[in-house]
Specification:
Elements lengths: L2 H10 L3 H7 L11 H17 L7 E7 L7 E6 L4 E10 L2 E7 L3 E3 L7 E2 L16 H18 L5 E3 H16 L3 H6 L4 H18 L1 H13 L5 H10 L1 H8 L6 E3 L4 E4 L3 E4 L4 H16 L1
Parallel strand pairs: 3-6, 7-10
Antiparallel strand pairs: 1-2, 1-5, 2-3, 3-4, 8-9, 9-10
Amino acid sequence: MTKKETILKAITEMDINLLDIVLEDNISYMDVPKVLFLEKLEMEFQTLKKQGITNFDKVYKGTCNKCYKGCAGFTFLTKNLDYLDLLFLEKDNEIVDIFRCSDLSNTEEIKKEKGIYLSFNEDEKTDYIPSSNILRKQKKTQTAEREFEKFNNTTIVLDTLLIWFEKATKAYNNLHLREAIYYNCFKSFNSKYNTVWGASFLKTHHQIAKKAIEEFNSVERSTSEEYMVWLTKYQDNYVRLSASYNEFEKLDNNSLIVINKNVIVDVKKYKESIYFIDLFKATMEKL
């Protein structure tokens, strides 16, 4: 069996260990180190295996129509029609790189449904050199993160946390969408910022939540239609508040929440917002 045939066999059988053995250690794949390439590929394989798919059912030849026009590749197709399109770049009959193809033309007509995609952040690539602009933005986000770390293993009131949020917003708004998504160095900051952004809804939507609770308690309801009127009126507020609900863990009768695993936030001043979420959800379940 040739080296190329062994690689095809390893991918077809979703055998990362065999692929690790046969692929060269000192070259990159999809512009990232081999270990990272295999790590992402294994994640995709594990996702399929959880669905009961342990191998690709068929392999079809093809050629690239786009970035590497004319380059030979293969479609790996599961029984559920999940597909992985890969190009094999060769030099002197040796595979020197493997790429996911976004436009692979197969030699025979086949049905494909759900694509399997491998993607990597810009700063994960082997040839990455940060620009002065990226370094400047990274410095600002790192400063914000260091300030946030002061809250670890402490209890703070929500208003104090929102002071950090207001300052961090300047660094967040300075990031372009592409930078926020495709640079690993900003992921940690983005995660913290968006978690606090979700918690901020407890304050910004607090007055509406209080009003909703007062109306619910003051009006006697005996029919589904009356409940539906209340639900419809406050649905938008519920959607906005519940969007942040999964970002924190509730403690102590709606007065304390935990964010980022070890920051305890005192939200007693705005606890009606949390109560409203539970009330709205319970009312929906009654109908």
